Amino acid sequence: MSLRRAATLGLVLGAIVVTAVLLRAGGDGDPTVARVGGKPIARSQLSAVVDHFRIEAKGEGKPFPDEGSAAFERLRNRLLGLLVYRTELRQAAARLGVGVTRLEVLKRLQSSGGADPEGTDRDSFEYGSAETQLLYERIFEQVTRGVTAPTPAELAARRNEAMGRYVARLKRETQVRYEPGYAPGP
Fold first, then answer.
1. Burial of residue 41 (number of CB atoms within 10 Å: 0-12, 13-18, 19+)
2. What is the DSSP string of 74-136?
3. How many CB atoms lie within 10 A of CB 100?
4. I need a labelling partner for 129 at 20 to 30 A (CA). Which of 1, 44, 45, 64 fits?
5. 113-145 in b/e burial notation, b at 16+ Cβ within 10 A?
6. What whole-number distance in Å separates Cα of residue 184 and Cα of residue 186?
7. What share of the chain is helix, strand, coil (3-state, %, to 5)?
């Protein structure tokens, strides 16, 4: 093999390796920490949630684990579990044909108190929380619409049981793959 051909082959192989690494990382330098039903959760999404809780802890005068510590990793991975759950709900809502608009989320944020009318003082975690809450409510309506009972209390219990079964099945059936070093604990 000539030196020129070997160099070309080396460059091609190098490009293939770099492309594979970028594809695994989401293609934009933001590594994927988990995949939920094929949908990636990027490290930046997880970092935003961790930062939200770090700021909340500081505002409340509570300690926050140091990065790299075992306590930090446990907390980070529990927060990743929250992002996985939110993604599961979004996917379930799409399958059921239910959704929410940005305006509905912003109205929910405003009604929760303290936000300016545009909701600009809210962070992505708070927006995601309001969106998830609305999606859960819509899924609940869809999943429990045929449930009946003789009394309001029994109806509420049966509807909650039906939704509990739905969420349990959702968690059982959704394929979640965590990258090494990332996985919620017990």
1. buried
2. HHHHHHHHHHHHHHHHHHHHHHHT----HHHHHHHHHHTSS--TT-TT--HHHHHHHHHHHHH
3. 18
4. 64
5. eebeeebeebeebbbbbbbbebbbebbbebbbe
6. 7
7. 65, 5, 30
The pLDDT profile of the chain, 186 residues, written as one tens digit per residue, is: 554 444 333 333 333 333 344 444 445 589 999 999 999 999 999 999 999 999 999 999 999 999 999 999 999 999 999 999 999 999 999 999 999 999 999 999 998 874 544 544 567 899 999 999 999 999 999 999 999 999 999 999 999 999 999 999 999 999 999 999 998 766
Q: Which residue, among 144, 45, 37, 142, has the nearest Cα to 99 in the 3D structure?
A: 142
Backbone φ and ψ of 41, nearest 5°: -110, 120
| Multiple choice CATH, 31-178, 3.90.550.10, 1.10.4030.10, 3.40.50.300, 3.90.1720.10 | 1.10.4030.10
In the Cβ-directed half-sphere of 160, how many Cα atoms lie within 13 Å? Answer: 6
Q: What sign has the CA pseudo-torsion 99, 102, 106, 109?
A: positive
Helical pair 152-173 and 124-144, crossing angle rounded to 10 deg: 120
